[in-house]
Sequence to fold (503 residues):
Amino acid sequence: QDDQFKKVVSHAKEYGYVFQSSEIYDGLSAVYDYAQNGVELKKNIRDYWWKAMVQMHENIVGLDAAIFMHPTTWKASGHIDAFNDPLIDNKDSKKRYRADVLIEDYVGKLDAKIEKEVTKAQKRFGDAFDKEQFLATNPRVLGYKEKGEAILKRMGQSLENEDLADVKALIEELEIVCPLSGSKNWTDVKQFNLMFGTKLGASADTAMDLYLRPETAQGIFVNFLNVQKTGRMKIPFGIAQTGKAFRNEIVARQFIFRMREFEQMEMQFFVRPGTQKEWYEEWKQTRLKWHLSLGMGAENYRFHDHEKLAHYADAAADIEFKFPFGFKELEGIHSRTDFDLSSHEKYSGKKLQYFDPEINERYVPYVVETSIGLDRMFLAVFSNSLQEEALENGTTRTVLKLPAVLAPTKAAVLPLVKKDGLPEIARQIVDELKWDFNVDYDEKDAVGRRYRRQDAAGTPFCITVDHDTLKDQSVTIRYRDTMEQQRVKISELKEIIKKEVDV
Ligand code: ATP
Fold:
């Protein structure tokens, strides 16, 4: 697993997808830059989302709100008071942890113990072993399970009640039962706000404290009535937005999975109060279908329904994806009630209500949100696509099997040799295709090496111009995934590629 993930990170760099930010100064932790191919892949994912959400839905429109917002926004949204991570330091190792993540790691040790019991029993009972029954009845397993659940419940309650002393006590107790850090020397748990602050204005006494937005959603809420009125939108309707968000993440690890500056793609769907549960279910399914449409394997997705809910939600689920380091949240679907709009009404003194002509009533709409991290989606697509294949001739090839619709470059045009007029024809093909697709021209090295280079970069098609082309106006098209080759007319190329990359 670790190895596979290391390969993902180094391939992303080697093929011009993702670089560490300010690398010449040794980088900036949890901040990344998208390189020549990465920027295209990112754009294609964004467009794929936008098309599915905005273009295909008559009742969803777009928005591009500013990153800076009036500071009261964040008071109203609850971010100033409640957008915190509980942190604890280990005095011996000088390491800082998120207390909730640390406690989950302890519970993970109990899960590992359960796995051990299963393996032991499997060996003892052989074919007669019934795993499900064993998990449901074995007293030792049940004991571990119960303990794990009790720990998580106690943590949830303590965090909810802001009883940080108990969170610390819990960590100390756990360290004795199932040691993780080997040390008992902890500081108190402190809440740490994740928002980045900055200042607007030049002089110290008149400057206004601002925040970099930690989510794009609030830009949609404060514009709700403007969009509804000017777009003459009727409920139910949605507003979609993509853009940067910033969080001062402490446990920043796992490459572009958890960044300090990242991009979100969010859609807020405004509905009549009382109908939110139906819409919530509907959007869960719609979003899962969107993921599945990319063909990255249904077995790599699962829902995780939340029991512990954020202050604004009455239902919440994650779509989890199987990353190289296990199943993790990729997208959230949240039923946010009327929390945000009502709160902005209260703080701004402006009505944010909708008159519903169908029932002759005025109300603050309820909201169902879909929220996905663009960078996290990038990592899902990229890590899933990177494969090493053993070939019949005994060699292996590295191939980036990106869904064709998302690939940065759709086709590479390769003259077989650098003479006899072949480069000129290849250039002509590039000139024709570039109106519709990103295409590459490559004449360096033997054609086999060029194929491998394009495979590793994720290009779905290679088009080779050879001496027969001079006679028959045909070329060879090679498919990245199957390595199959076909002879086709130059005039057919556009349609063939279009069929594969259009959705
Ligand atoms: P997590 O539990 O992983 O911290 P979250 O529950 O705080 O995430 P949300 O606030 O629901 O996440 O944000 C919606 C989406 O934004 C997430 O599903 C994820 O894809 C993305 N996201 C959130 N934080 C980050 C981050 N630091 N870096 C990259 N993407 C992020």
User: Anything to note?
Assistant: Residues 242 and 265 are 4 Å apart (CA to CA). Residues 85-193 form one domain.
